[in-house]
Amino acid sequence: MRHTISILVENKFGVLSRVAGLFSGRGYNIESISVGETLDPKISVMTIVTKGEEAIVEQITKQLNKLIDVIKVQDLFEVDHVEREMVLIKVAPPTQLKAEALRLAEIFRGRVVDSSQKTYTIEITGDEKKIEAFAELMKPMGVKEFVRSGKIAIAREKIRQ
Amino acid sequence: MKATGSQIIVESLKKEGVKHIFGYPGGVVLNIFDALYDAKDIKLILTRHEQGATHMADGYARSTGKVGVALVTSGPGATNTVTGIATAAMDSIPIVVLTGQVPTMLIGNDAFQEADIVGITRPCCKYNYLVKDINDLAYTIKEAFYIASSGRPGPVVIDLPKDVSAAQGKFHWPDKLNIRSYHPTLEGNRWMIEKAAEKITRSKKPVIIAGGGVILSGASDELRIFAEFTDIPVTTTLMGIGAFPTNHPLSLGMPGMHGTYYANMAIQESDLLIAVGMRFDDRVTGKIDAFAPNAEIIHIDIDPTSIRKNVDVDIPIVGDSTKVLFTLNQILKDTDKPQWEEIRKAWIKHIDEWKKARPLTYRFDENIIKPQYVIEKLYEATEGDAIIATEVGQNQMWAAQFFKFKKPRTFLSSGGLGTMGYGFPAALGAQVAFPDKTVIDIAGDGSIQMNIQELATAVIYDLPVKVAILNNHYLGMVRQWQELFFNERYSHSYLHEVPDFVKLAEAYGAVGLRAEKPSDVEPVIREALRVRKPVFMDFVIDWKEKVYPMVPAGAPIDQMLFEEEPKTKEEKKLKVIK
Ligand SMILES: Cc1ncc(C[n+]2csc(CCOP(=O)(O)OP(=O)(O)O)c2C)c(N)n1
Predict the structure, then answer these.
(1) SS (H, E, C) B353-395
(2) B475 CA to middle of ligand 1, Å?
(3) Is the CB of B399 under 6 A from ligand 1?
(4) Span B91-107, pLDDT tens digits
(5) pLDDT tens, B464-498?
(6) Chain B partners of A23 at a C-beta cutoff of 8 Å?
(7) Would you place residue B576 in the very low, low, confident or very high pLDDT band (cuts 50, 70, 90)?
(8) Would you call A139 exposed, middle or buried from its count of C-beta atoms within 10 A (0-12, 13-18, 19+)?
(9) Which of A119, B57, B243, B514 lies 20 to 30 A from B357 at CA?
(10) pLDDT tens digits along B10-31
């Protein structure tokens, strides 16, 4: 099963390698990892997407919790949550497809963030399915570069009954 | 108070109550060594190798329960400590290792004697620091000692750049720590403990497995109260040796690969395992799917990651062994004891039959020294009142099997990492802490050569450690595996000539004694214990001797190999080596 784990950590030197090292040292797998400061600059949040059986994921969250610099670990698999990632895609469509590229970007609520005589760079955010669908549609457009940010995620606030 | 970084380090160590440091100097720690020159209440023991220093700090910690401290230089000095740090990490031993580092400005520039020791030790220590600011020194040291010794203990590394230890600053000892992300759970969940108590009163064939956590937590008394009140037999893992007296009628000795027949059989037949401060290491469980097939498991451990890592657990209790067992004992006291009294009698009778059928034994020989005989004689001569360290291999297993340990913190052995060369320096560390106690390292001729240079440390600091070398001219345990599982193809396990250990001891200024036949054993031991000097006892043993029983790696623990022909029908079912 795929799990998205959100980890609050002390924003200290070496913390990222402690977390990443835990995964590599114990043979766990990381699909994506993204890190950034929170509103409190002393705290960072990491979002790690990992795959594994229940017992493995239980070990992963326990091992993460055990790291001295880890403040809180939340396995978002257990709760309803929103996931996003961002992609920058640089395409060089043949002349007859230029308009189509822009039209598709619009449909997917993408934005053209850079353009040249031959290329467009499109920014798009969304969940994995949306990104994959968009990437698929862009294939005939002469994709020159494709950069993904890795996932970030947040739990949905519960609605009171 | 105005001070240099080095003085701050020394003052902080004093505040932590440090009396001994094991260390080795070098360029970037000269400032700290200079500050130690005036520190009369801290004694630095100059070792001959940094690995020796870390193992000594470890032996000091295991025997006293206090934090052991090592101080070494950067680069090669620091990398030499890695084996000692990893050894301490695997066995949860609290040590603080202070390593020098090149000046902050030069870090990352491949400066002379630079190594990224924070990076190198990250996966094998509990926590580590690079201190870049003199104002962080005192707080970091206080935090390091706290982290090393609290929760599940472990080694902590502090990397100290030269400019920081040379800088001028102020000494301010913080009175409080504030680590928002580190809160070990000490009290077990009451409801879980109640559920455990209920299972314990109802179980017909319970077994306690006690591990190193019982010793680390100081829970031996609570464990004895628990076992005696409930009449449950206790098996102690290698790390748990000493947590429960081996000569107690409820003791089953050690389980697992070289465990006793009765410990392994009892586990396999049990309906309830009460695991305390142990982590189901593969050397204990053997084939995991076949481990204790009928048992429900109660697992008490301070480290939540230990629980359900290797085996499924019915009642997990995260907490400190002492506190959890105390609560459990309180709850049990109010239950109706006769509930289980009769049931236990039958179970213990059953176990006693196993004990009679296959006691831990060996074949004595009049002409050649059996290693087990040496251990028995060491036990008799000391009446068990000694701290025993071991190396790794057959010597370690024979020591674990044949010496009777009555008290915690008297058996020092590298269980998790299995580090050859650990025992001798660890013994020296214990002797530093207890100058008047008998401290013995039980060694193989291979292992002792891995840190033999520390004999100089022993002589110079008047540390009268006795080393009993079970000399078989082989890497005995490797040879045993090759004999049993590799068709006697002894690939590189024969050591050919080993040094003349008697002469070697004498060359260092220690005492060397040799025993070549069984009748020499007692006189040699008596003489060794008489002289107040480090002694090498070279016991020329039967090189063919193997450690039995043995569960082949990956087999279920009731499939043991034995030395002799089986006598009873039931035992015939077990695979037997002639
Ligand atoms: C540092 C290290 N290297 C290698 C090993 C693998 N090993 C385990 S036991 C053993 C043989 C030990 O031989 P010796 O010290 O002579 O003891 P004996 O088994 O003969 O008692 C070896 C090589 C180890 N445990 N540690």
Answers:
(1) HHHHHCCCCCCCCCCCECHHHHHHHHHHHHCCCCEEEECCCHH
(2) 6
(3) no
(4) 999 999 999 999 999 99
(5) 999 999 999 999 999 999 999 999 999 999 998 88
(6) none
(7) very low
(8) exposed
(9) B243
(10) 999 999 999 999 999 999 999 9
Please classify residue B485 by burial: count the beta carbons closer than 10 Å to its beta carbon, then call 0-12 exposed, 13-18 middle and 19+ buried. Answer: exposed
Listed in sequence order, the residues at least 6 apart from B499 whose beta carbon sits closer than 8 Å to its beta carbon are B449
Asked if the Cβ–Cβ distance from A21 to B308 is below 8 Å, we say no
Residues B83 and B450: beta-carbon distance below 8 Å: no
Q: Which amino acid is at B269?
A: E
Summarize the confidence of residues A34-49 as an average pLDDT. 96
Chain A within 8 Å of B178 (Cβ-Cβ)?
no
B410 and B388 Cβ atoms separated by less than 8 Å: yes
ipTM of the complex: 0.90
Residue whose entry in the numeric block shows the structure tokens 């359900």: B308
- Residue to mutate, B394, B447, B450, B493, ligand 1, most ligand atoms under 8 Å from C-beta: B447
Whether pLDDT at B566 is above 70:
no
H or E element that contains B566: none
- Quickly count: other Cβ atoms within 10 Å of residue A4's Cβ: 20
Distance B421 CA to ligand 1 centre (A): 9
B403: nearest Cα among B434, B428, B372? B372
**Residue numbers in B near A63 (CB within 8 A):** 305
B444 CB under 6 A from ligand 1?
A: yes
CA distance B509 to A46: 58
In this prediction the pTM is: 0.95
pLDDT band at B537 (very low <50, low <70, confident <90, very high): very high
> Does B181 contact chain A (CB < 8 Å)?
yes
**Is the C-beta atom of B374 inside 6 A of ligand 1?**
no
Q: Would the CB atoms of B305 and A66 count as touching at under 8 Å?
A: yes
Answer yes or no: are the C-beta atoms of B236 and B212 closer than 8 Å: no
Q: In angstroms, rounded to a whole number, what is the distance separating the alpha carbons of residues B519 and A100?
A: 97
Residues of B in contact with A62 (CB under 8 A): 304-305
C-beta of residue B393 within 8 angstroms of C-beta of residue B546: no
Residues B544-570 have a mean pLDDT of 85
Contact B180 A71 (CB under 8 A): yes
**Distances, alpha carbon B118 to alpha carbons A10, A15, B112, in Å:** 17, 12, 17
Sign of CA dihedral A82, A83, A88, A91: negative
CB B94 within 8 A of CB B153: yes
Does ligand 1 have an atom closer than 6 angstroms to the CB of B476? Answer: yes
Question: Residue B17 carries which side chain, given as an amino acid letter?
Answer: G
Q: What is the pLDDT of residues B437-461, one digit of tens each?
A: 999 999 999 999 999 999 999 999 9
Q: What is the atom index within ligand 1 of the atom nearest the CA of B419?
A: 26
Tell which residue, B465, B467, B472, has the closest CA to residue B445.
Answer: B472
Q: Taking a contact as any Cβ pair under 8 Å apart, which residues of chain A between 20 and 39 contact chain B?
A: 21, 25
Give B419 Cα–ligand 1 centroid separation in angstroms. 8
Model confidence at A161: pLDDT above 90: no
Spatial contact of A7 and A59, defined as CB atoms under 8 Å apart = no
The CB of B416 under 6 Å from ligand 1? The reply is no
The DSSP bridge pattern shows strands A120-126 and A111-115 to be antiparallel
Q: Please state, in angstroms and as integers, the Cα–Cα distance from residue B331 to each residue in B196, B314, B343, following that order.
A: 10, 19, 20
Contact A10 B182 (CB under 8 A): no
Identify the pLDDT of residue B567: 56
Mean pLDDT in residue range B372-379? 98
Active-site residues of B, by number, are 50, 112-113, 162, 477
On whether any CB of chain B is under 8 Å from the CB of A62, the answer is: yes
- Residues of chain A in contact with residue B178, where contact means CB-CB under 8 angstroms, are none
Contact B494, B473 (CB under 8 A): yes
Distance CA B438, CA B534 (A): 11
Q: Which pLDDT value is given to residue B353?
A: 97
